[in-house]
């Protein structure tokens, strides 16, 4: 098909063949979705296709790998229903049968004659089985051959053949048909991800739901084709739905990079609303072993698109304006989703939180703009922690704090301080958990300090007069002789703010790479340093302790004198990182502003502790 946007013209026998295919696929979908399960259905399909893996490959290659959007949506729902029954677990192994045993059932001890006593052995059944086996595409036969004595078995032995391999094939096919996918395909993908509820129905309770009486023939029956119609379910608001524990989540995350702008923005909105509505959905998303790399690469692509959009001249065409709007919306939603998921993982504490942060920091080496992306991600993570605290609140508590956005953070700091000072469990939080919480905060501060220093804002760079800005008015923030930050909680950088930062990069300095990068990171690094220091203020200077008492001074000194062993001793204790971040704010903030005065007061106390050490 040369023109992908043109609908397929079907007339005559071609149309009849297509309608018959739709009806046959609908019957297969209904048989797979009916509850209780049809006896012998899975084993019969495995017998015809040479094994459970061959049956899954046949569904993908014959029903999903098609140019028609409606048939592809039916194939996706058939594949999901089949995988739920054949291999419900992500690491479950699928039965593999050699190609020379295509006529043998799942167990090699039983022949085709006694594989299913309800179906008598006939030559027509053997002929149908051979024909169906021969129609499986090369990809399906290749999957069925994995684990046998072939060259492919050297790459992937039989012990590695699992559900992940089949979903990898699903990702490849959907990626090939991404430009042809419409409402039906995306609605079917949505039904695969979400649990059954008021909007989602992936099971049938009886045959009467899809076999109804025919209006034309008084004694005849017909198939209710509305069951296969998934186009009516659009990507709308699904804040109350629940995610399923399925490997398809990783498949959708991998596909987000390749979807068109409109569908990418819609999928990001759905994932963000679902994760914001329930913590269990975030836990299911975190259970995917490879959730962070595709999301990081997606953010990298969006940032690159933003940079390309800002470098181009303004266009008045409606299509260009829609494209810019979709990119900006994807930028905001994707960073909020990434920050909220990292914040949820951080609130659980422990070794997993440290590994997630280290993985995010290591992924910057896989992208050209990785350092810039990591800086923006850390800003949204710190904004989430400042808004919702560092300790997970009870399930019954509200996740939104409208009257005081720092209330959750102050409550987290109070619990950590009380547990450390009492050396026992207090307010449901013990000393071991408090130490783990502070360890995560110390590790996060070390990463932020390293990112800010690498961006060209080290102590030596701050005192270099060649790096100073002589402008009396900061164009981006409106500050006088410095950057003006918000007096309340500092949010992560939005698409509009990032576009303004890119626009302020002077074209005359494009050859001066170091200076241009410094101008690009100036606003983001200052905001990042202010967010990190504001986050730690609640723990180092807790409101539950009287600042005039010596115990409060000893408490803060004990916290800041420790170092992060996972990153070595090159950065020194956390006190050195706090001083470096304070100097960044002192040299770039607007004089006499609220944040500037807070920074001066904090730096005075930090220098006093440094002299004591």
List the helices and strands and how they pair.
Layout: H1 13-33, H2 41-49, H3 52-64, H4 69-86, H5 123-134, H6 138-144, H7 151-155, H8 163-176, H9 183-193, E1 211-213, E2 221-223, H10 248-255, H11 261-277, H12 279-287, H13 292-311, H14 318-348, H15 351-362, H16 370-388, H17 407-422, H18 431-454, H19 459-462, H20 495-503, H21 513-540, H22 550-560, H23 574-588, H24 594-612
Antiparallel strand pairs: 1-2
Helix pairs in contact: 1-4, 2-3, 3-4, 3-6, 3-8, 4-9, 8-10, 11-12, 11-14, 13-14, 13-20, 14-15, 14-16, 15-18, 16-21, 17-18, 18-21, 18-23, 21-23, 23-24
Summarize the structure.
The protein has about 625 residues and is an all-alpha fold. The protein is built from 24 helices and 2 strands.
Can you give a write-up of this model?
The protein is an all-alpha fold. Helix content is about 55%, strand content about 0%. The chain has 24 helices and 2 strands. The protein has helices spanning about 15-35, 40-50, 50-65, 70-85, 125-135, 140-145, 150-155, 165-175, 185-195, 250-255, 260-275, 280-285, 290-310, 320-350, 350-360, 370-390, 405-420, 430-455, 460, 495-505, 515-540, 550-560, 575-590, 595-610, and strands at about 210-215, 220-225. The chain has a two-stranded antiparallel ribbon with strand order 1-2. α4 (about 70-85) runs parallel beside α9 (about 185-195), α14 packs antiparallel against α15 (about 350-360) and α15 runs parallel beside α18. The radius of gyration is 30 Å and the shape is elongated. The model is unreliable at about 1-5, about 95-120, about 135-140, about 150-155 and about 395-405 (pLDDT under 50).
């Amino acid at each position: 098909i040369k023109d992908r946007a043109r609908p397929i013209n079907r007339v005559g026998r071609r149309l009849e063949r297509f309608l018959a295919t739709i009806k046959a696929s609908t019957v297969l979908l209904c048989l797979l979705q009916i509850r209780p399960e049809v006896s012998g259905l899975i084993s019969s399909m495995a017998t015809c296709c040479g094994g459970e893996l061959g049956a899954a490959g046949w569904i993908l290659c014959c029903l999903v790998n098609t140019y028609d959007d409606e048939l592809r949506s039916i194939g996706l729902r058939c594949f999901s229903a089949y995988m739920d029954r054949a291999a419900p677990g992500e690491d479950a192994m699928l039965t593999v049968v050699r190609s020379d045993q295509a006529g043998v059932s799942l167990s090699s001890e039983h022949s085709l004659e006694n594989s299913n006593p309800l179906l008598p052995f006939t030559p027509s059944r053997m002929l149908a089985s051979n024909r169906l086996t021969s129609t499986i595409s090369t990809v399906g036969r290749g999957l069925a051959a994995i684990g046998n004595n072939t060259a492919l078995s050297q790459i992937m032995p039989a012990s590695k053949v699992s559900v992940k391999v089949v979903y990898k094939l699903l990702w490849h096919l959907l990626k090939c048909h991404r430009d042809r996918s419409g409402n039906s395909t995306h609605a079917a993908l949505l039904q695969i991800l979400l649990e059954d509820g008021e909007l989602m129905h992936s099971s049938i309770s009886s045959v009467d739901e899809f076999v109804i009486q025919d209006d034309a023939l008084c004694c005849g029956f017909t198939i209710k084709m509305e069951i296969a119609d998934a186009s009516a379910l659009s990507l709308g608001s699904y804040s109350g739905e629940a995610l399923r524990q399925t490997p398809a989540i990783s498949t959708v995350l991998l596909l987000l990079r390749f979807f068109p702008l409109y569908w990418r923005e819609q999928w990001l909105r759905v994932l963000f609303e679902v994760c914001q509505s329930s913590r269990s959905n975030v836990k299911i998303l975190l259970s995917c072993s490879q959730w962070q790399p595709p999301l990081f690469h997606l953010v990298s692509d969006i940032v690159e698109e933003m940079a390309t959009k800002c470098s181009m001249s303004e266009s008045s065409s409606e299509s260009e304006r829609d494209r810019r709007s979709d990119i900006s919306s994807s930028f905001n939603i994707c960073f909020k989703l990434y920050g909220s998921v990292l914040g949820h993982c951080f609130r659980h504490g422990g070794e997993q939180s440290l590994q997630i942060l280290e993985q995010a920091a290591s992924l910057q080496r896989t992208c050209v703009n990785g350092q810039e992306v990591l800086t923006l991600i850390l800003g949204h993570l710190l904004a989430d922690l400042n808004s919702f605290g560092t300790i997970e609140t009870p399930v019954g508590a509200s996740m939104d704090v409208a009257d005081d956005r720092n209330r959750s953070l102050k409550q987290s700091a109070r619990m950590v301080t009380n547990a450390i000072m009492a050396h026992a469990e207090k307010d449901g939080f013990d000393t071991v958990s408090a130490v783990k919480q502070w360890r995560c905060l110390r590790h996060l501060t070390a990463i932020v300090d390293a990112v800010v220093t690498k961006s060209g804002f080290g102590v030596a760079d701050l005192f270099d007069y060649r790096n100073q800005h002589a402008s009396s008015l900061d164009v981006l923030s409106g500050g006088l002789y410095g950057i003006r930050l918000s007096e309340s909680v500092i949010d992560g950088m939005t698409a509009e703010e990032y576009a303004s930062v890119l626009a302020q990069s002077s074209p005359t300095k494009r050859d001066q790479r170091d200076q241009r990068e410094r101008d690009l990171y100036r606003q983001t690094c200052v905001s990042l340093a202010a967010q990190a220091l504001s986050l730690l203020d609640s723990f180092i200077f807790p409101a539950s302790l009287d600042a005039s008492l010596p115990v409060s001074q000893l408490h803060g000194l004990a916290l800041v004198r420790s170092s992060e062993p996972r990153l070595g001793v090159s950065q020194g204790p956390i006190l050195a990182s706090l001083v470096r971040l304070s100097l960044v704010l002192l040299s770039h903030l607007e004089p006499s502003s609220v944040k500037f005065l807070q920074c001066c007061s904090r730096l005075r106390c930090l220098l006093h502790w440094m002299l004591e050490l």
